[in-house]
Design a protein that fits this description.
By secondary structure, the chain is mainly beta.
Length: 199
């Protein structure tokens, strides 16, 4: 279940009270997050920096929460901030709670209700028609990525809506976001993401 943002909740609240305000999820987007670890993390070892395979796609603020994930195991750490293009992220010293492999472990900003953009958004597709869930007020919003997206490890998925949402990156209201690791190879696999929300 994705984390709803304040902006997404406000959009829905306004739609409930007013006519002609679109509040459905109409697009979903993927992000590689901060990228992948260039060196493995070992269970029980301490670290004060995370090294990356490539430069950061966007700046990280001091004190920002980051999630390290391999798709099965996750750990949250706090960064000391890093500039766009940096290949090392300083973090408050932590002890690894799992073994995390190099090159396939993703790092991303931990989703927060105050987020208004999807960090490092790189791919966007139109959402499929939503459907009611099995519980009162539950709505299911699926999105299909057909595998033609560029090869890469995607870590974040964001759901967008509002009158300004289009196929252009960064448009519309970020309604919800989630951490979902997909190690994708061009034209080799596909993936479906589904936002499950209850009003």
């Amino acid at each position: 279940m994705a984390l709803w943002t304040n902006a997404g909740l406000s959009l829905v609240a306004n739609a409930v009270q007013s006519a002609s305000i679109p509040c459905a999820i109409t697009y979903a987007a993927l992000s590689p997050g901060c990228g992948t670890l260039s060196g493995a993390l070992t269970l029980g070892s301490s670290y004060s920096a995370l090294t990356l395979d490539a430069g950061l796609p966007a700046t990280l603020a001091n004190g920002q929460s980051l999630t390290i994930t391999d798709g099965t195991n996750s750990q949250t750490v706090t960064t000391g901030g890093a500039s766009i293009g940096a290949t090392s992220i300083p973090v408050i010293s932590f002890t690894a709670t799992h073994n995390f492999a190099a090159h396939t472990t993703g790092i991303c900003p931990t989703p927060a209700i105050t987020d208004i953009t999807l960090y490092g958004e790189s791919v966007r597709v139109a959402a499929l028609p939503g459907s009611p869930g099995g519980n009162a007020g539950e709505s299911l919003s699926p999105t299909y990525f057909d595998g033609t997206q560029p090869t890469g490890i995607y870590v974040l998925v964001g759901y967008f809506g509002g009158s300004g949402a289009t196929s252009s990156l960064g448009s519309g209201v970020l309604m919800a976001e989630d951490i979902q690791l997909w190690n994708h190879v061009l034209n080799s696999d596909s993936n479906t993401y589904q936002a499950d929300s209850t009003v």
